[in-house]
# Entry
Amino acid sequence: MSALAASVRDAGVSLKRLPRGEWGTPLLLATLIVVDVSIQPALLDVTQIGLLIQTALVAVLLATAQTLAVLTRGVDLSVGSVLVVTDVLTATKLGGLEGDRLALLPLVLAAGAAIGLLNGALIAYGGLEPFVATLATWAIFDGVALLVLPTDGGAPPQQLTNLAIGETAGIPNSYIGLALVLLAWLALRRSPLGVRALAIGSDAERAFLNGINVRRTKLIVYALGGFVAGIAGVYLAASTSTGVPTAGDGLLLPSLAAVVIGGTSLAGGRGGVGLSVMGVFVLVFIGDLVAALQLPSWVATVASAAMLLIVVSLRSLPQVLARKETA
Amino acid sequence: MTRLLPRRLPATAVAFVVFGLLFAFATIRSPDFASASHIRQLLVFASFVGFAALGQTLVILGGGLDLSVPWVMALGGIQLSIWTGDGMSSALGVVLLVLVGAGIGTISGLGVTALRIPPIVMTIGMGGLVLGYLMRVGLGSSTAASAPAAAERLVNDTLLGLPLIAYVWLAFALAAAWLLRRTGFGRALYATGANETVARLAGSRVAAVRVAAYAASGAASAFAGILLSGYVGQTYLNMGAPYLFSSIAAVAVGGASVLGGSGSYWGTVAGACTLTVLAALLPTFNLDAAWLNIVYGLVILLAVGVNRIAARGVAA
# Structure
């Protein structure tokens, strides 16, 4: 284990500090918050912030799943399709006319993990590139969701809805949800699995030489990603009280944008869920500002896409320039 | 002339054999499948996939991927109907939109080459910008914009029993084959997709050919969107959505490596025809449209798997 930790350090990975030059995102987020709050001071309220987190939580969970894939030098294009599968299952199998069957919730969550497991198996054991494998499962499970529920509808159990939008001891449950995501990441990052995943992302060959089972680690990481994206689907169905089989359509872009804006390296091995959560809130506050300024909704779409392209350009510029110098 | 016909055997030939077998199966199942009117209809459908996958083929051969195809397609259809509604001639509109598509592709290509942004991130970002623009123009008009007359004629009128679009597609297929087989651009594109560093050291203009491939993808997608709007008779935001999967699936079924460096546009043509026949077969099995996505996904997995095993066999 210590040899492994040393190799991770050698590869330029610090698990504790923010990567160098990564203060841009916190500054950007702080600026957006200050501007947003100064425009609408009413936002500074426990309930209001709770609602903001509630709308952000789906994106937070999807960005978490995306971050796990990216950290291992992969990508998960299927996060939106996992979300719609568990979304429609929650709306049709857990709730519905014959009453609630909350006992089946673990099965719904297992369905998300199973799709992730399939991704991981195709990538780690099938030898497919992550983008090919997850592109295919994206198509397949978008179709599966439409089979389960052809049009918007269904009825998620009321208890789940209460849990999603309710509060505990005066604190909106969305705070607790966000805190749980961050705590889970902190635990994972320090766990052997997290260390292995980061080691694979920074240098898979070296990780292999250090005795890490690269294939099994990737399998578990993608399965975990599917599980987390599946929770996002359950939460979406519960908090909106309905099932929408096409709800995942626009969610891939924000999940990637949050990872990139947060600062997790697309080359793998550096970054984390904490950064991506900041990335999500950058996008959330942009959307909130657009609404507060009564601008049309397309402005938020353009701003998110532009933010993704600008930030990814700025991050790759130093490397491009360094390459020019050495060339 | 013979040199422009499929030369990259056996992958392209296998793709055509697969298509032939599937078509024969469909005809046995329902004899009407091979009727002249149904074949005309299938050709029109296949040409949409064929054009959406034309640029995708070039991008994938060069080692990239274009995920902005659906939004550039929607842009082609929607913007043309807006322009022609304002009195612009549709010929001018088509030319301008193909150029706009090429411009969008050029930006994607520059991001991928000059800034080294991963193709997936770059093309999703560009797709998001186009989507934002479409949401803006869509808010102005409450009704679905109608399709331009020129696009309707291309897909509805026939010449010697075949739809006009089939001849246009054939012309583009021959042009693409010439470009890939007989020009320095084609050789450089294959070399880049196979191994970028080696290609660069060998003197290929790696960045230029990759940018050109993305530009071609943007142009072809915009054109495909115009054709689609002509067939459907109206335009809407999600009109291009199925073509993200089908354009990539057509390339994979056509025997190209999804990692770049090997494949042909003739293979993609066979892939587009195969997918179209598959889609037309689904209702005969009482499978609804939801199955289309599932089939596309399974086909991508199957084609990529078979290609890998075939490539391993050749290498061994």
User: Anything to note?
Assistant: Residues 298-326 of chain A form the longest helix (29 residues). Chain A has one domain: 21-323.
